[in-house]
Amino acid sequence: MSRTALIVIDMVNAYQHEDAGLLIPSVRRALPGMRRAIGRARSEGTDVIYVNDNFGRWRSQHDELLETVLSGPHADLVEPVRPDGTSLFVVKARHSIFYETPLSYLLSQHGIGHIVLSGQVTEQCVLYSALDAHIRHLDVTVLEDGVAHIHADLADAALRMMERNMGARITSSADPDLYRSGSPSGGRPS
Question: What is the 3-state secondary structure (H, E, C) of 68-132?
Answer without folding.
Answer: HHHCCCCHHHHHHHCCCCCCEEEEECCCCCCCCCCHHHHHHHCCEEEEEEEEECHHHHHHHHHHH
